[in-house]
Amino acid sequence: MTRRPLIAGNWKMNLTHVEAVELVRKLGAALPDAVHDVVEVAVLPAFPHLHPVRTVLATEQLRMVHGAQDLAPQDGGAYTGDVSGPMLAALGCRYVLVGHSERREHHHEDDALVNAKVHAALRHRLTPLVCVGEGLGVREQGRHVEHCRAQLDADLTAVTPAQVAASVIAYEPVWAIGTGRVATPDDAQQVCGALRERVAERCDAATAGAVRILYGGSVKADNVAELVARPDIDGALVGGASLDADEFSRLCAITAGRYRGSTDEHS
Ligand code: PGA
Question: What does the UniProt entry say about where the protein is found (predicted)?
Fold first, then answer.
């Protein structure tokens, strides 16, 4: 089975809704069908921008999909400030980030909460994009593989093999996010490969072969080709570079070119 590559742009807490609409229009113009035929391109705007972005995607028939950056573990009720899975589903979201390191750090999200959010996403047919990754201290102690496997185990507690196969895992070393310090393709492949092995142990070989695993952390147009060339890296979660339409569309086009050249490495 060949896994369809995914490039997801995490816009974080950037842009006004007017700027978000402008960016999605520019991306629509810059991304040809030939790229969409190979790569799934997703944008993950802030909550207030989901509706306008969705409207532009639909009315201008652009082939990108959209998703959110977080969701509440509950489906509704007295949770001031939170946004639920049913709300995101009603806005046509396909994806939702869960467990991004910025949520873990600034909002003290632990693996139990991340796991509850994974289940909330799955309950509403949203694809969770589950983020794991080690900080610099863990990397320097050489415990990064063990750390990421443990996070994955905890975050996927009581998730069925079919649900895992339909989810996306993102390996994002915290020391590489927004720092310009990208992991080497070998570093990224080592952890992504170990995560896929872990899925095989927890579930089965078919699930491990189906689940998409992305790398994230300072991915740009000029380093994406080497990353997605690795057998267990099925695309990228892109922060800073996703806010620039030229850079992001180039990054998607380079990924499409790399896949057109060799699909069997990722099967
Ligand atoms: P970055 O962010 O590409 O700016 O490093 C990646 C992410 O946080 O998802």
Answer: Cytoplasm
